[in-house]
Amino acid sequence: MTDGPGTACGAAASAASVGSDDSVAPWRAPVAAGALDAVVELPGSKSLSARALLLAAVADAPTTLTGLLRSRDTELMLAALTVLGARFEDLDASGTRLRVTPAPLPLRVRTGPDGVGRIETGLAGTVMRFVPALAALADAPVVLDGDEAARRRPMAPLLDALAALGAEVTYLGEPGFLPVRVGPGDGALLRAQSARVAVDGSASSQFVSALLLLGALLPGGLELTPTGPVPSLTHVAMTVATLRERGVAVDEPGPGAGDGERTWRVHPGRPRGGQVTIEPDLSNAGPFLAAALVAGGRVSVPHWPAATTQAGDAWRELLPRMGGAVTLTGSTTDSTLTASGTGRLTGIEADLSDVGELVPTVAALATLAGAQGHASALTGIAHLRGHETDRLAALATQIRRLGGHAEETADGLVIGPAPLHGAALHAYADHRMATFAAIIGLGVEGVTLDDVECTSKTLPGFTGLWAAVLATAGGESSPRTGTGSGTVPGAQGAGA
């Protein structure tokens, strides 16, 4: 059996195109030495940062963003939006506070001598899906390309929808995938008084979000109907909420509408500028909260939003089903989520269709629960085959490398009881496969990972942050006054 899809992104995670780097020594995942007692300050949400940057780049006035994630994905988004005419100014040394001067419409592309702009997407789904929609409103065509693994991520449904709306779409490689040239065509989109389009969103909710983000910039807005089931609807809800927060009116389908019958209508109007604060990344909180269940003790994440559209808020429901306890304390404006555990885990049967990005962490806990004799079944996640790598194949392969029992199903994974042993695991250039390995390593001696640096995609400094959390085991960290907890700084200041 092969080690599954994807390629390791190597130490140079921020390079324009990445591949495995055999000269980099594997990272040895640390084993938990005892019960934890940590407070983890996390950087901003990747998903919210991407949406905030894009809307600020096309707003009616400048925007100041606070709490912005600075990672490989957001740097790629910043570079892409710069090519389309937006300007960005750091307002502090960390780069997490940023002033955005929006681009005019039509977007003025920074082109080369050939009259074409060029955008590097890396492996960032938000860049490769959100930015082509904007390129359809530009004054010149743009060529988009990315990492080797990005050329295997599906693009056809979005690009077909853009072509149906009048954009120029030319594939420069395999049809339906990067690289692709996108342009304004004859400019029909900027003249359309009524725009309607259908899109197959079954492979990614990002296709739906990309078109919703485009809709407000069209003279007559946009009516959008997905033709089939849409996974990760929480991300579509996030897009709608973000648009509304910027003053854009969006009509959502009724709760009883079925697949192919749900229509979103985005009313025209440039998003408002102003002040925007970005929530901490609740999906990235998952590995740290899970550590408390595996090692025992407690891990707390401050500034947990009282209400949010982030998929990571589901940790409040998922972790107690796997043997942990979760509490939310504080006020409605500043709450802290704490996960605690004893090291005893339970299996889970869960439909994770709306929270697919949480699956690698859930699968890691389920694998460790399997070593304690418990079975799990994760369903509704067939769309993970089109993420940074084929995550279902990658997870099944890595679990079996550890001695575990894992089987792919049509839409998920079955993880059965089996003892585990150390193994050399692969990241597949996928940040969430890297954190999967880190969680497993808490409870299994001898786990190594070929490419921990790909965590820089969404969480720079992960290894330093992880080590600081584990250093609180057995009271080894400096006590935090009044709590006895070790306070772990945000990843952007932790170093790696």
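The above is record 1. Record 2 follows with the same two-line structure.
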Amino acid sequence: MSDIKRIVLTGGPCAGKTTALVRIVEHFSNLGFKVFTVPEVPTMYTQGGWNYLTHNPRLYYEGELAILQTQLALEDSFMRLAETCTKPTFVVCDRGTMDISAYVAPEMWHDMTTKCGTNSNDLRLRYDAVLHLVSAAVGAEQYYTLATNTTRYEQADEEGLQLARDLDNKVNKAWTGHSHLRVINTYDNFDVKIRCVIKEISHVLGIPQA
């Protein structure tokens, strides 16, 4: 059985995932690791023209199903790449399969997972750790921005901030039950948040901490 760790970096809108991924790769590459990062699949589809706010129910369903299928395939592909490496390696997923469940009704999610031959419990077990970065909309509203993701629908007004908070909570609940779910809170100093992420990943990898 492969000992390559698969870690999910998730959270609500404007949580700092993009910056965190850059810092993760930089930090652990300097320690001699090869770090693979699975790109955020929903963003790929929205940039390609699909919109989860569509009023076409069939288009909505097929889009979400395609996202789940693509997520599974991409993760498996990157794990196969990781298994060819001779140096210490791990895979970080920019969001994971359970994130999708936060955007669909329970009955639709059940139908989608059944078509993919899986279920919520099995999907959580795919990952060694889940790091939930709390959205800036929760306690750090002054830092909430659309600059890092121009396809984000949750605007920087009160309505958008509340939507971002709701999504943050839904994503957190989607992963509840995972044995290594860690919630990384928002801080006035973003570097503190990044250090918490680095510390959690180091723990998963078995790297001794100061």
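The longest strand covers residues 5-11.
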